[in-house]
Amino acid sequence: MLQVLQVVIPVFLVIGAGYGAVRAGLFADSAIDGLLAFTVRFSVPVLLFTKIYALDLGQAFNWPMLASFYVGALTCFALGLGIARLAGRTPGEAVVIGFGAFFSNTVLIGLPVMGRAYGEAATEPVYGIIAFHAPTLYTIGMIAMEMSRRGGAGAVAALKRAGKSIVSNALMIGILTGVTLNLIQAPLPEPFMNAANLLAGAALPAALFAMGAALTRYKLQAEITPALGLSALLLILHPLIAYIGAALIFDLEDQFVRAAVLTSAMPAGMNVYVFAALYRRAEGVAASTVLLSTALGVLTISFWLTLLGGAGSG
What we know:
This protein is mainly alpha-helical. It has one domain (about 1-310): Na+/H+ antiporter like fold (Up-down Bundle). Helix content is about 80%, strand content about 0%. The protein has 15 helices and no strands. The protein has helices spanning about 1-25, 30-55, 55-60, 65-85, 90-100, 105-120, 125-150, 155-165, 170-185, 190-200, 205-215, 225-250, 255-265, 270-280, 285-310.
């Protein structure tokens, strides 16, 4: 267990450092947006590009692994949405709550945890999951929201809006560029790749610190009960479904089981709050879910690492 905590705790300590620095006045609130812009628009997209460009795509895009992850994600979305409607939430609020149940933090927390636990090579299948993550889940969320607001009449408009959002997103540009150049086997100059690797090296530590700093802007408010329920779906049910699919149904190799389950076990990403703010629905629930699931993730991720075994051996 100590070995597992040695994997998990440093990641959350960097998040905590960002949070504490802002609270202590050592890092200005006005600087958060600049650091977030650097990580989300530059260093993380470059990281995704460099890693996907060098991937063995046939190995990374393991379809049973992807099915295990996304069946779990869609199940949590449906449950979150359905339970919210039964609890009396409006259709729009229910969609945001469903979105909060399946948009996990695969990049900022998933990648560093996986890399620390099993080594850099073990992150390759995770990039296969990430390649589909934002476009798939944002498209589902936007279509569901438009249908809830317009009785289904806005589904086509939602598709167009989602498509425009995806192709203009810096993270997706990094992913799509990496996939394209990988497929055509385009050689890139060594100085260019060295510069890209330098920029990519700053991505995860800077992003974790920025995430912690940004969490100071959110509050648990009075939405602790729905946030706790969504955290259970994110941190327990999703990885459980992924484990059943990857390990028991498809009987995948350890590297793919670990990628599917551990990536599924991540807390809510900040895009959950961004989505809620975009539609002005259930923003308190979204913010509370990001905060609470991130805090609880220290314990639940440690549990899944212990179950999967081998943490720290990579």
